[in-house]
Amino acid sequence: MSWLHRLLMRWEVFLIFVLIGTFVFGARVSQYFLRPSNLSIALAGMTPVALLALSMTLVIVSGEIDISVGSIVGLCAASMAVCVEHGFPVEAAMLGGIFVGMLAGLVNGIIVAYGALPSLVVTIGTLALYRGIAQIILEERGVSSFPEWYQNIGFGTIGNTPIPWSSIAFILLFVGFATFLHATHWGRALYAIGNNREASRFSGIDVRLAILGVFVTSGVMASLAAIVLTAYLASARSDTAIGLELPVITAVVLGGVNIFGGSGTMGGVLIALLVLAFVQNALGLAGVTPEQQQIVTGAVLVLTLIVFGAFGISRKMKLAPWRFRTPDPRKTLRVSGGP
Length: 339
Known about the structure:
By secondary structure, the chain is mainly α.
């Protein structure tokens, strides 16, 4: 098999062609699609989802899932709003929101890792729990008394350029997450856990601590997404980020991450995020309602799962730009302690 054929067989290359097709479709739909200001809006609007997708990639690679991320975002937003209402500086409210997100992720992680319960069931339960707490805290009111500098975090751009500030934050975090997942022992340990948990445990990986870590990370990233989303909307409500878990999981799975864990790359997730951002933007310019866009997002997720299930693409394709080989259980990989 030639190198060109191997390259074209990679899932990320397919996604790049899809991204190009998305730009062609958007340009045909509206003359405003390719304008820098419109592309900037598309990127800024996708940033909360993109932030959550980084940590969700770690969660799914390790063989788990976190359905509660949207509710954690809503809880963090409600917590920040209450702090601002009571006269706390916005900076203190942001720190409070990060603490709430970390605590919510810690609760998820302890129940899943040390309670040995399925993460799907646990996070469905905490999805309702955290949303209910947010509704109790903020009730039906909305809070919009945020300063202008804070609102610029959501949709402000760097000087006269169309580059959103939030996109710069995402790029920095993306580099950190990609380095962690693809270039460290701890990242390789997550792949090993997703492939074979028992073998990973016997290889010296502290599986429970690793699972706890990815859920705490998910909670912290949800709090950062809440900061960006609240700034983007210039308000906070208890129903903030309802349904946000759907595009997050869709982006991760579309990016080539195996829903059962053990394979996938951050590069694929990044391209998938761009595809979703510009598809939604093009559909919006075409007059498609948000409800109809949600149908498209759900259909993309289902179709991707069908393709992966029918053809085994997530296991057979070599996912560029990083390769990962499952650690040999016969070779001890000590990351953070014993079994």
